[in-house]
Amino acid sequence: MELECILQFFENKTILIIGATGFLAKVFMEKILRVQPNVKRIYLLLRASDNEFATQRFCHEVIGLDLFNILRKSLGANLESYVFERITPISGDICDVNLGIKDSILREEMWNEIDIVLNSAATTNFDERYDVALGINTFGALHVLSFAKKCTKLKVLLHVSTAYVCGEKDGYILESPIYMGDRLKGTSRLDINVEKELVEEYLDRLRVQGATNEEITSTMKDFGTKRAKLYGWPNTYVYTKALGEMLLGNYNKNLPLVIIRPTMITSTYKEPFSGWIEGARTVDGVIAAYGKGKLKCFLGHPKTIMDVIPADMVVNSMIMAMVAHANKSSQIIFHVGSSMRNPMKLSSLSDLISLYFTQNPWIDRNGKSIKVSKPIVFSNIAMFQAYMAIRYKLPLKVLWLANLVLFQYYREIYINLNRKVKVVMRLVDLYKPYVFFTGCFDDSNTEKLRVTIRENDVDMHLFNFDPKCIDWEDYFMNTHIPGLIKYSMKR
Questions:
Q1: Is 434 an active-site residue?
Q2: CA torsion through residues 77, 79, 84, 89, sign
Q3: Cβ burial 60-74 (10 Å sphere, 16+ → b, else e)
Q4: Of 237, 269, 392, 434, which one is the catalytic site residue?
Q5: Does the keyword Amino-acid biosynthesis apply (predicted)?
Q6: Could you confirm whether 130 is annotated as catalytic?
């Protein structure tokens, strides 16, 4: 598989990208436009009222980003014509049959033209509403598969999942499929259609009761978490992604299907430049809270491996997987992470975050530097709860009583401290399954792709996804945290 063949694979090809405004999709799109100018067409599915509004969303949320600066510099005034000769934004919705594309003529054109389908659409909120998560992460995957089956020229369908569909397993986690009805614990039978019916019944009951939108949202979030934990998954996100994989595996038949399971995705390592990121992702919520002085302690075992992987490495693995698995009537799964090849301990990450903000203090809205101290990391729940009770909850109770006696004299202090405690507790609740995670992701299939690259002398600069080359200290100190501050953190 020579470099020329990789680039030729995308030449004169038509690609459908679902989840086009997502982080990975944008990095993938930029890469294809930059390295293969002769791609025939890229359809982008965007939630919009019509194709005109879809185009407006594309201009505002995608092509105007700094991510495309390399293309912008090389093409100058020709950027817009270059892009729109190749990009076609279309209105649609992954939650609907035929992806919500109402124009029958357009649908037929797409089915006759599309070579590659990339589904990177997902709601990644750990505590998303159950109905929303099922619609996008689970049944959305099935809608994509159904649409792809109608594409007469289809070479490959690539679905982006997450490595954490494994739940809280420990040990060596294989690149193996999840079969219909699989559960991680419990004896209750898991039936995806029953889950859908339960959601509909729950929603109907809430509406009859006159529940507000806020009450429905809160109830459906709790319901999703409850159902996830019933079957052994820690949150609604990874649970509904696992259900999506079940549907893909069950109804795939003979389609060339690639499932990519990345671990925690971070900012770009090299391409198109170092440090680009969008939004606070995975560990970034912790980094942001600490840098802003809102996080003094956290929970997690120091020996836990924080399996992170830069976005451009994930995209390079996606490209190589598409090429390697094209036209093969089977399913294959790739773990894309670093725990096997270049593990980084939670304690090391904690030290790096502390070092960075000690040397580069966060500047608040008033222009003042925020001083940080080395965070306290508790290795078990009991120690953490005892600390929180003594350090924060007891003073909160005293302040609450004082406010009753002194006519809310300490009201602002109480509100501020209470907010900080809530931030910590929410982060703990969301990340607890991962800061105590003891699994290691087998990446045998992914390593075979890397071996193919090395054996065929492919340009590693263009298609590198080997985490062994990453110096984590240099990456976090000089790339990821500066990029996070520049592109994602609001002051």
A1: no
A2: negative
A3: eebbeeebbeebbee
A4: 237
A5: no
A6: no
